[in-house]
Amino acid sequence: MSSTSSPAHADVLTKRLALRTWTLSEATAVLDDTRSRSPHWAHDFPAEGDRVVAGLLDQYPAWLGAYGHRLIIERESDLVVGSIGLFWPPGDGVLEIGYGIVASRRGLGYAPEATRALAEFALTTPDVHTVSANVELSNPSSIRVLEKAGFQRWATEENEENIARFRLTSPTPSPDHSRR
């Protein structure tokens, strides 16, 4: 990633959430939360998906950058309530997003709020014209998250994968990118 396309690691803020980049020490604490449990975590953080991401941050250092993975912080309580991430680097201008909210905060609209905010942030880089997500058809809650976040379903594969493919595209793609 070039320095011209990377903003400072500023938080992405929404009305109710702050999306802050992970640190390696937080990843270590998530992987060993029995000894290093933070008082700034919701009682049910980390979830299994958070542990998976934390375990991959050493292998994918770009995920710690501005366009990588972030913790979802509830601004009112200052507690970490999930994580969301962009799987950097993009391929042909397309960047995948993934997210998870702890069970105690589901149903509050945090997932679509965070997903929309981080996708819009990703679309500000000249290297990205589309943010995508793939969801198993057996996960209607995640499908609703993407729909509420403004993503459009563009394909459904009803085979052994049973996947719905979603995307959010830049409203004005740069001249060297076509919409996909």
Quick recap:
This protein is an alpha+beta fold. It contains four helices and eight strands, in the order ββααβββαβαββ. The protein has helices spanning 24-31, 48-56, 110-122, 140-148; strands at 12-13, 17-21, 69-74, 79-91, 94-101, 130-136, 152-157, 163-169.
Describe the structure.
The protein has 180 residues and is an alpha+beta fold. Helices cover 22% and strands 30% of the residues. The protein is built from four helices and eight strands; from the N terminus they run E-E-H-H-E-E-E-H-E-H-E-E. An eight-stranded mixed beta sheet has the order 1-2-3-4-5-6-8-7, sandwiched between helices. Helix 1 (24-31) packs across helix 2 (48-56) and helix 3 (110-122) packs across helix 4. The chain is globular, with a radius of gyration of 16 Å. It starts with 11 loop residues before the first strand and ends in an 11-residue tail after the last strand.
Keywords:
180 residues, disordered N terminus, alpha+beta, eight-stranded mixed sheet
**Helicity level:** 10-25%
Mean pLDDT across every amino acid position: 89
Q: Characterize the main sheet.
A: 8 strands, mixed
Helix-strand sequence = EEHHEEEHEHEE
Q: What is the number of beta strands?
A: 8
Q: How would you classify the helix and strand content by structural class?
A: alpha+beta
Q: Whole-number radius of gyration?
A: 16 Å
- What is the distance, rounded to the nearest whole angstrom, between the alpha carbons of the first and last residues? 22 Å
Main sheet: which strands, in order across? 1-2-3-4-5-6-8-7
Assembly status: single chain
- Low-pLDDT runs: 1-7
Shape: globular
- Strand residues, percent: 25-35%
Number of distinct helices: 4
